[in-house]
Specification:
269 residues; alpha/beta; Arc Repressor Mutant, subunit A; Rossmann fold; seven-stranded parallel sheet; three-stranded antiparallel sheet; 38% helix; elongated
Length: 269
């Protein structure tokens, strides 16, 4: 018995063209971080509705995220735990810019909380070198050597279980102590920010719980982070971007990140 198989060459060519188009869209996302429907329509000489279907297919396969008028790259990396002082030594120039911006927000008479982060460490240096009369609450024990005997700063150290990766005291004992205080400004670090859903994460589970406790006692919340954190994730979510009044970064993020940030009611400094 002979079975005759007919191949529709037009359908085969169309399938190949769609696959090539998808590959090229992903290549553009890898290079530019975003694509626009109208630009792709012109480039491939197909309708905008066809491009939207392409983007829908690629989004279903978790290869991109559609946005208004286009799509963005969603390639993300899980952050591995790294010791506190190794983090302090990395990108110090960028962290100093963020720390200076944060310092300008601290006013005479403020009560502030610095959680354990490499940017907070640099911010603590700035505070200790100046003469603002403030109360500083922190679980970051490393800054104790920065405070001089004649300093105007009233420092309250939070105790608990010391974690060398975090660079501070965290866990249930720390949380119970944190609950005893109130502050008007808290500066919080993070491992990653996912703008698809606004989640903010850290690499240690007990650090996540400690950060939540700090956030509950503060009137104003500031997220201090480098722009690279918008493409990184920690393992443990502790908050959402909508919980913060402002995000302080070293410079304005790229257009892709800026577009995504517009959907959240948060100030960018």
């Amino acid at each position: 018995m002979i079975v005759k198989i007919e191949v529709n060459e037009n359908n085969l060519e169309e399938t190949m063209f769609i696959e090539e188009r998808h590959k090229h869209i992903l290549d553009l996302l890898e290079r530019d971080g975003k694509v626009l429907v109208k630009d792709l329509s012109t480039q491939f000489e197909v309708s905008e509705s066809m491009i939207r279907k392409d983007l829908q297919v690629l989004e279903k396969n978790n290869l991109l995220q559609r946005t208004y008028g286009g799509a963005i790259n969603i390639k993300r990396t899980i952050v591995n735990g790294e010791s506190f002082f190794k983090r302090v030594e990395k990108n110090t120039d960028l962290k100093e810019i963020i720390a200076k911006k944060a310092y300008e927000l601290i006013k005479e008479g403020d009560t502030i909380f610095l959680d354990a982060s490499s940017i907070s460490y640099i911010l603590a240096k700035l505070i200790s070198q100046n003469t603002k009369n403030i109360t500083l609450i922190t679980n970051m024990v490393e800054i104790s050597s920065m405070i001089s005997l004649d300093s105007k700063i009233h420092v309250i150290f939070i105790g608990g279980d010391y974690n060398p990766l975090v660079g501070g005291n965290i866990g249930s004992h720390s949380i119970e102590q944190i609950k005893l205080y109130r502050c008007n400004k808290a500066f919080i670090g993070c491992s990653g920010i996912d703008l698809r859903d606004g989640s903010i994460s850290t690499s240690e589970s007990e650090d996540a719980g400690t950060k939540k406790a700090i956030m509950k006692i503060s009137k104003e919340l500031f997220l201090i982070t480098q722009n690279e954190r918008f493409s990184l994730d920690g393992i443990f979510n502790f908050s959402n971007i909508t919980d913060f009044h402002s995000i302080i970064t070293e410079t304005a993020p790229n257009n892709t990140i800026a577009t995504l940030l517009e959907q959240y009611d948060v100030n960018l400094i």
